[in-house]
From TrEMBL:
Family: Belongs to the YccS/YhfK family.
Location within or outside the cell: Cell membrane
InterPro entries: Memb_transporter_dom, YccS_N
Transmembrane domains' residue ranges: 118-136, 142-164, 448-468, 474-489, 494-512
UniProt signal peptide: none
Ranges for domain Integral membrane protein YccS N-terminal: 74-350
Domain Integral membrane bound transporter positions: 414-536
Pfam (any one): FUSC-like
Gene source species: Arcicella rosea
Gene Ontology CC entries for this record: plasma membrane
Protein name stated in the entry: Putative membrane protein (TIGR01666 family)
Amino acid sequence: MTSKTQQTTNEIKNFVLSSYFGDGLRITFGAVIPSLILSQFGLLQTGITVSLGALCASIADTPGPITHRRNAMLVTTLVVSVVSLLTGFANASVYFLGILILVFSFLFSMLYVYGNRIASIGTAALLVMTLGIGDIRSFSEILLYTLYIIGGGLWYSALSISLYKIMPYRLAQQSLGDCVIEVAHFMRIKAGFYKEGMDYDENYKKLLECQVLVNEKQNAVRDLLFKSREIVRESTQQGRFLVIVFVDVMDLFEQIMSTFYSYKTLHKQFDEIGILKQFEVVLLQLSDQLEEVGYALKADTKPQLSLRLPREIRDLKLEIEALERGDYGNEFKESGVQALNNIEVNVENIFNRIKKINGYFKDRKARKLTKSQTQSAYFISHEEYEFSLFRENLALKSEIFRHAIRVSVVMLIGFIIAQSYNFLHSNWILLTIMVIMKPAFSLTKERNYHRLIGTIIGAIVGMSILSWVEDGKALFAILLICMLGAYSFQRKNYVVSVLFMTPFILILYDFLGMGSRAIFIERVYDTIIGGSIAFVASHVFLPSWEHQKLKTVLVEMIEANLAYYHQVSTYYFGQQYDKIPYKIIRKEVYVRSANLASAFQRMFSEPKSKQLSIKEIHKFSVLNHLMSSYVATLALYIMEHKEEIPAIEWLKEIASNSEKLLNEAMMTLIKNENTAGVELKILPLKHIFKEDDDAILIAEQFIDLQKVAFDIYKISEKIKV
């Protein structure tokens, strides 16, 4: 297990090696170089405009295949140049400017219908519009300003593409490393269930939150690996290595998911002999080992396999054998000892899987890796950019449409308020509204809080720096550090990003001779005003509450678990295992579990009056996690014992009843009433076992699944959304 000091060191190392820090370096370099070079010729203002163009292009340079990134950066450069031109002309009239703000805010906010990458193009366009408001120029100056924006966008695009050509696998390695580390974190949380005195509800909450992050990382890696032609072809050892490791990490995550039992029952039976503490220690060591693999991927080194772990696992096995022999007395239930046996076998499998992944590092160096059999086309989603999608969302029932109307009206109100008072700045008020307002109320609330806290603390830090540091070179070095921090944390931690961004802006204004104390006060004022307008509007004007769209998420979760259970159960009744359909269904379970956990988190951030059936939804989330964990256990068992499965046709009735219960749970959620017509119940197991019957373990899993399915059905009756 790692100490707190080691954990802190690991977190710092993890961040420095992450794609976040890499993005921060690239954006900082891309934005600073034009200003730095042109300032040498007395053209600092021109340099700042070129840097703005570079910054706009960087907004669309989010992780993904290079073709998508390249196209997004070039389209962004084109769009922001047009917006810059029109904003420059509209500055001649406050009325034209108001109309421009209203129209552009609506159109660019609607781009959320096409996903985050296209939405980022809209964000860049609104940024240029916002910063250009009130900047009255002549016709020739407007054209020059637009050309400088285009130049900056093209410069940054060329820089980003060039870095990719030099290191084509770097971003994929970093993302895969992040994914592995998040899976290790998931295992560390699961290890917490073996700790004596554990708060189960709190640990479940952490587990579900972590599952959201794991899913995000998996999707990011999936896009990078399977949408990049160089990697999909697996024509190099590095490409094969990344694909094979990712496939094994997905299987490993399933293995970790399947280690699920009634922890309360286990603690009641075994706390006195301390064997659960041994399990916790081993699982924490396994998570450390997996984390080491993640760091090795990001640093392009080779992980070291712990020599102590095999011994710890062997000791664990000997302890369980002692329990089976009755060395601790015979008061322990056979089912409890068998559960420990199953967990120990799973722990061994996890260790062997990690050992296998470690071996890939050696095989890559020896150039022994062969092409994987993964059919990547089945595991990636394809974005649709048809205009029909935009048109279909032009209705009040669309969350994005309501968001776009809300943003456009609030931006116009912010502009009118700023124009009414000389001491207010349209740019900062509108910029605050633009970055804070999100389609969901909870996200707007969170952004608002983070921006306000980050701005106030950052402004105090910035003023302190300007008061104490007078040397120009030292100030420039601090400015670069603040830029790097702001751009490195913008996707990871928004409050930290704003904390770095505010001193950066204050120092920049000081360099430009525009004062600092007045800027400090004005920035805080404008942030408070913009944030207040955005918060109130998201609460009262066409609000989007989570309970309004939660029914779909709940139904999709049951639907995914039902498909997963059906697919796995048929393997026990004669159907041959088919890897592709199984993995597609498994992926859907992970995605929808993450969607449910994410929706629950958002609802939890909303006002109490909007948190409908919050306790029931939490229990629903936990039960569905249980369901997928039990199904994963069944799936792994049959994969490891294909030739040893006994005839268990008598379990079909139990399996069918479980599916019936899940189907009825779905219908109950859809119609808000029981549609079965009869009272559904748990069917008893009628089969009589012999003492040495191999089917006992399988039957126990099917019975447990039926109980969970029944609980899901009963809790679905209580949910009102």
